[in-house]
Every structure is written in C-alpha cells, then in structure tokens.
Amino acid sequence: MPLSRSLTLPLLTLALVGLLAMVLSVGVGSVALSPVQVGAALLGEGSNLHQTLVLELRLPRTLAAFATGGLLAVAGALMQVLLRNPLADPYVLGLSGGAAVGALLAMLAGLGGVIVSGSAFAGALLATLMVFGLAHGTGSWTPSRLLLTGVVVAAGWGAVITLILAISPTQRLPGMLYWLMGDVSYARTPWPALILLVLACLLVLPLGRSLNVLARGPMQAAALGVSVRPLEWLIYVLASLLTAAAVTTAGSIGFVGLVVPHMLRLMLGNDQRLILPACALAGGTLLVLADTLARVVIAPEQLPVGVITALLGVPTFLYLLYRSR
Fold this sequence. Notes:
- There is one protein chain.
- The protein is globular, with a radius of gyration of 20 Å.
- It has 14 helices and no strands.
- Helices cover 76% and strands 0% of the residues.
- It is mainly α.
- Keywords: Cell membrane, Membrane, Transmembrane, Transmembrane helix, Transport.
- This is Iron complex transport system permease protein.
C-alpha cells in the first residue's frame, strides 16, 4: 500500500467516527433529536427550540469537548516523544497543577467566567516556566532531569491546591471540585481551542520524520542531521501550550493524553506523521463520547467528564499493557 494511502485511510476513518460521535452528542439530551433534526437546525431550519438546543447549547459544548480531547492527546504524544517515556502524559510536568492553582485562586476571590480561564492559563504558563527553568539550571537539561523536576513541581502544586481547598468557603467547594475533576460545561467558547488544535497539527505534520528519528534517541537523531536541541524546545513549548489551552477550556481531564497515543500506536504503528493527527481525531472523539455519557448516565444530573475518562481509561490502559506484552 502506498505510504500516502496508508496515512490517509486511517485518518478518514477516524474523522468519520468523530463526526458520528458529534452528531450523537448533539442529538442526545433531555430533548432527543434525530440526525435529520440536527442537520436542519445546523442549516437554520426547524423549530426555534431545536435551533437553540443545537446552536447555543449542545454544539458549542461538543466542539469544546472535541478540541480539548484532541489537544490533550496530541500533547501526550509529544511528551512521550520528548521524554522517551511511554508513561508520560500532558500533566506529567505539573502544568495542570499550576493551572488549577490559578483557577482556584480566582474562584476563591469570587471571580468567574473569563477571569477563571485566564487565571488557569496564566498558572499553566507559570508552571511551564518554573519546570523548564529549574530543569535547565546552569547547564543543559535532559529528559530524565525534566521529568523529575516536573514530578516534584507537580507535588508542590498539589500541596497548594489542598491548602486552597482547606481554607475555601463551603459554598465554593463544589465548583472548585468540579473544575479539578474536569467539566466541559465550564467551556465558554470552543473556537480558540479548535483553532489552536488545527494550527498545532499543521505545525507538527512537517516535523513527522524528525520526530520519528528523535523517538529513537538524541544521539541517533543528531547523527542523522536532526537539530536535536531546537526540536526538543519546540516540542516542550508546543506540548505545554496545548495542555494549557486544554486545561483552560475544561479543567483537568485525565487519561486522554496517556491512553489515546498508546492505543493508536498498537493499532497504527509508531509513525508520528500518522500518530499525531490521529491523536487529534481520536482524542477529540473519545472526549465527546465521554462527555455525552457524563450528561446522560444519571440525567438530569451531570457527572464531571473527568470521572468518565478515568473510569474508562484505567481498564483500557491495563488492557493495552496486557496486549503489548
């Protein structure tokens, strides 16, 4: 099979599955809509109720879930290449902890909406700068040094989060806990995350061959003409930015960035030219389905989508480890 076809066919399949998942997500709810009714509402036809449900409530949330899942999965795949560690995920360097501290401080101050999202993004960027600065020190950083620094910084953020929760008023705790568990209902608009996801995929696709070589080790990559250090910096900055955008959009949602890259590598191989765009599609689809399940499993109440991804992610990851023996 030609290489271009071997890359295109899985991506088209994942895109089709993702589209079907989004149609299902938009149609499911207290008022069920058929695919025909969903399509009519998207075209500006049908009843005013259907148009309001689709265009103002369900579609923005579905797109936000897709963008968040795609960002986390791509960031996880990049982190695993950078650290050459199959257990690396988008949160391994403490970015989610920094974002959580920023968001919780804004909630503690009685702020909401855009301020909480902006505080979360600022906290994630602060965590990025801290980890990189501490890992770099006076010399160069290595993947193991970066990983260890990230783990220690993440533990520190965890202590600060516990302190904030301990001193927070009782009436503010439910919102804080939902944010920490990940909840797409907090998403204000999906477009910044979607645009960033598309731009990231366009950026990493030309780097696919270099990432394939880097995954084998820096010495082999340097011997084959790859500029190792600039490429590692680019991966770190890009993965951090994607994670910060995802956490800002929907809070801390676990397992997507860890499970999806593993699952795709077992199914499609380890070619980064295929894995990275496939992660964007598969991660988005997974989170859309998880959010749909979170909305309906105990309706009319809703679960945080992070609970669903954890319940699905743990057995899935254990099964993938069993298969990869």
